[in-house]
Each structure stands twice: as C-alpha cells, then as structure tokens.
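FIELD: query
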Amino acid sequence: MKRFLLLLISVWVADTAYSQQWIDKKYTYDSTYNVPYGTAVNFNGGIDTLKMDIYSPRCNDPQQISRRPLLLVIHGGAFLEGSKNEASVTYLSKEFAKRGYVTANINYRLGFVTDDTAHTCNYPNYSCVFAADTAEWYRAYYRGIQDAKGALRYLINRNQQYRIDTSNVFVMGESAGAFIALGVALMDTLIEKPSPTGAIAPAANPHPSALTCSYNVGKVFSQPNVLRPDLGSIDGSIEPTTIRYTIKGVGNMYGAMLTDLLQYRKANTVAPAIYSFHQPCDPVVPIDQGNVYQYLNWCFTNGYGCFGISRTPVVKGSRAFSNLNSANNYGYTIQNNFTATNFPFSYLIGPGSCLDQVNNPCHAYDNFVLRENNLATFFAGYVSTFPVCDTGNITVNVPPAAGSEFALQVFPNPFHEVLEADFRHHTDATYRLTDISGREVATGILRPGRNRINLPPVLPQGAYLLQVATAGGQTLVKRVIH
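FIELD: result
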C-alpha cells in the first residue's frame, strides 16, 4: 500500500507539473510564414488561395521532441476584413508556441454580397456592412468555418512533420474568429448546417458605393446578379483526412453562435470545453441574444445621425449560449469571464457609452495579458500530452536487494506502432500500460532482456505510463509518448 501511495503521489506531482508546463513560457520557436493550405470559391465565384503562419516550439535535442498540442488562432473582422497578420493573433500564436503548442494563425475567405443601395454616414466603411440579406451573414460565417476546418486538417495530415498530438487540439478566435472557432469545434452534424448556406436565389450586384470595400476591391461582378449556389458540406473540401483528432477546447473571445451548436453532437465524440470572455457593453456582438451591431445601431441613431445597419442576424452571445447549456443540461464545461459594465444607453455619459468606446472599446479585451493567461490556464487543464522537450521518466523505485539489478529502457520514445522494452533484472516482472487518467490499455509480462509491449489495435495519440513491478516489490514507471 505504501508503494502504491508513493506511485499515486508521484504521478499526481508529475501531472501537476504537466499542467503548469502549458502555462509557463519557456521555449523558443521556429516560424514558417504564408504556407498555402488550400483554395476555395469566394462569395463572388472567384478562387481564393488561403494561407497560414505556423509556429513550432524548438528543442535543443531533436531526439527529445515529444508530440505537442495544436492551437489554431482565427482573426476577427466581421467576416469582411482582417488577416492572419493582425497584431493580437500573431502575438497569441507566438505566446502559445512559447508554452509548447504548435500554433497556426490563418487567413480565410472574406466578404459577402452587399446590397444595391447607396448608404452614407460619417462613420468608417459604413456602407460595407450592409448585406444583400441576412443569408449573406450566414454564408460568410459558413465559408470561414469550412476554411478553418480545412486548415486544421492540413496540420493534422502533417502531424508527423510538426510532431502534433492529434488528441490534443485547441481552437480560439476573436470576434468573427470566435464565431468560426465555435463552429469548427461544434458544427459536426449535417443537421447543424444553416439553411441559408444551401442554394438560394441570386442577389443583385452591389451598389457602386460599395465597390471600394476591401473585400470588393478587384472583384468583377457578373451581370445582372451574383449567383448563390449551395456552399457544400459542413467540413468543406480542403485537405480531406482519415486521421482522427480531438478538439479539447475552444477560446471564445467576444464571439457568438448563429444557431444553437450545443444541442447536437456527433456520436462518440468528446464535448470540447469552452472558455468565453465577453463584455456586456459590447456594441457589436451582444453578450446575450440579439442582433449583430445591436448597441452600435443605438449609437448610430442617437448620436451619429445615421440609421441603423439593417439585415443583421440574431445571434446567441456568450452568456446566451452558456445559459442554454445550463438550462438544457447539454453537458459542456464552460468557463465565463465577463466584465461588469452594461451598455448605458447613453451617447455621452458613463463607461460603455458611445463616445467612451472610442478610447475604451467594449468589443475588445479589457486586459489583454490577463485574458491570454486565463485562456492558457484553462486550456492547460485539458492537455494530456507530456512536456515538449522532456521525454524523461517518472521513477518510483523501491531500492532493490543488494546485488540485484533493476533497470528499464523503452524505445522508441515517442513510439508509433511498436514499443519495446529492454528489461534488466534476474526475474520476470509484470507491466501495465495506462493513459494518464489511469485507464489500463495493456498488460503483460516482461522477461529479462528485450521485450515487445503488447499494444491494442487502436491507440489514441498522447501520453501513457508504463508501470513495471517485480515479485519482490520493486516498482518503476516510465512515461512514453504515442
């Protein structure tokens, strides 16, 4: 019993150290920029080439590199603008690479068909956010989800190259990027495909005043309208894969859902944990259920002398879908970090008022570093692989009798299809291979000399403990990476 307790304590200490590993920043990283991961048809029928930047933690000894968790970072911009070069997403990508994640930030298809009416207002890009109809918001959102899923599969298909642990995948995004991140993790059944993403009636060409919008520049519009065909499957067509992977967590930074994506879940899948940061005074994406630009429209009509932006969709903000999860017992783990300031319905006075948000925007982080560290701490609780540059051992070794050799080497480590052990002892021993939660996946006998460990036909990638015990009560534990 004493030896058993010692083993449990050692594993607990190691597990605690593993969690801290994914919070501490201790790695340098290699950067690869503008990697094409696929092509796709844009809102106007043209072809966009999509690219990503990849950051990989670096080890001084390549033999020590274990598999690493993967984090996909997705920029915001109302599905209309923005890029992977946004300062906040490149910063987050680099900071999580320093924590040991393989990270990638991506470009995805932008733009929708604007309406055919001239809009004027003393506000930047005012005419660019008037969609032909509400369906255009759904279609832009859906294209982003398809692209991000394709980017994820691109990396999964190259998991050997980047040493990615496919059972430890995370996605996060800001604003529109958070909508997409939630869709990547949660839109996994056909019933969740939004109906406006099927084939619908063509839309009239945009008004000339909208042709200077960034997503329209260089586009040639067919006459007399823009065709809107079926957008295809919820997964898109970029980088098909047969490799199984598990999305463990989602970072939702002031995003929302267009539909209830928590209700349906693909059979035999893990429900990803969700971290949400949102401010109640957000004028762009409501924290509760409401229209996109809900409070911004109040500012337009009560101070800017403009009329509100029309045809925006009703969304389920961070607090709204968290409440849905609780009310319906959907079973998702959601951690909410919400600030306290509500929208004051004032143009001039108070925190969160229209003019206050010029310098203190509520559709943004209140404290960027705090929220970054909160997200890292949240994700760390779900990472189940070992430190990036450490494939050493957890050793719980009861001293052997004098003159009795007891040694164990395992190889290769990390392993793929075969795991062998070189066992040095004068008698046989038993072994158990468990995952880090303690679930047994293999057992057997080790004889003095070289042995092959019996592995199940299907073994998920991740971290495992090989526990060896002799009849004399000596115990040793090795951690191995698959």
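FIELD: remark
The chain has a mean pLDDT of 88.
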